[in-house]
Amino acid sequence: MTMLIVGMVIFFGVHLVRVIAPDFRAAMMTKMGTWGWKGVYAVVALVGFVIMVMGYADIRFTSPQLWATDAAWARMAASLLMLPALVLLVATYVPGVLRAKVKHPMLIATILWAGLHLAVNGRLADLLLFGSFLVWSLLVFYDAAARRPAVTPPVKSPGLAWDGVAIAIGGFAWWWLAFGGGHLLLFGMPVMR
Predict the structure, then answer these.
(1) Quick one: which of 36, 39, 48, 166 has the most CB atoms within 10 Å?
(2) What is the model's pTM?
(3) Domain range spanning residue 183?
(4) Model pLDDT, residue 97
(5) Nearest-CA neighbor of 82 among 159, 182, 7, 188?
(6) What's the pLDDT score for residue 151?
(7) Which pLDDT band holds residue 157 (cuts at 50, 70, 90)?
(8) Same domain as 43, residue 112
(9) How much of the chain exceeds pLDDT 90, in percent?
(10) Of residues 106 and 151, more confidently modeled
């Protein structure tokens, strides 16, 4: 349990700097340069993520069961709702209409992912991991929505073709995770038990 919590503190701590210490972040970016700050940020986040994943894997099946999660319909619903989450995640990285219209698609994808996984995984380890991602993504989403958007120069209108790319890649990732054995291969757990 300690390893999971330490990893979460490191990972979410660095990810909350913009929310809880924006002046510190700005000072570090000035001092280190944008890429220097991003490099340190990425290394610290990666270390926290690895520790968190190792801690979760260590207690995943031995932590106390807090609620029942054996309803097949709930697992099927969660699996189906992961499709838009994966499409939104991919849309974050392509300049399509979807990314332009949906504010903060990565945060919305994370909210969906965490909420769905929390609903169908009822152990204490699941509550800590997925619950933390859910709370973090809601906090950051609220903070991002409250901030005044940055003034950016007008750019060429995004094309619908990029949305097709997001749907195709997100759809393939969903199929591979749900039906192609990807979830079992990566996480040791089939989508439907």
Answers:
(1) 166
(2) 0.86
(3) 66-193
(4) 87
(5) 182
(6) 46
(7) low
(8) no
(9) 66
(10) 106
150 pLDDT band, cuts 50/70/90, is low
d(C-alpha 84, C-alpha 57), whole Å: 26
What are the tokens at 186?
Answer: 């990566």
Q: Which of 59, 80, 103 is the last residue of a domain?
A: 59
Q: What share of the chain is helix, strand, coil (3-state, %, to 5)?
A: 75, 0, 25
Q: pLDDT band for 155, please (50, 70, 90 cuts).
A: low
Please report the DSSP string for 47-87 in residue order.
HHHHHHHHHHHHHTTTSPB-S----HHHHHHHHHHHHHHHH
DSSP, collapsed to helix, strand or coil, labels residue 96 as: strand
The three-state secondary structure class of 93 is coil
Retrieve residue 164's tokens: 């097709």
Q: Pick from 133, 163, 125: which is nearest to 4 by CA?
A: 125
Residues 100, 181, single domain; the answer is: yes
Instruction: Please state, in angstroms and rounded to a whole number, the distance separating the CA atoms of residues 134 and 4.
Output: 16
The verdict on 85 and 123 lying in the same domain is: yes
Q: Are residues 136 and 89 in the same domain?
A: yes
32 and 88 in a single domain? The answer is no
Cβ atoms of 76 and 52 within 8 Å: the answer is no
- Are 92 and 47 members of one domain? no
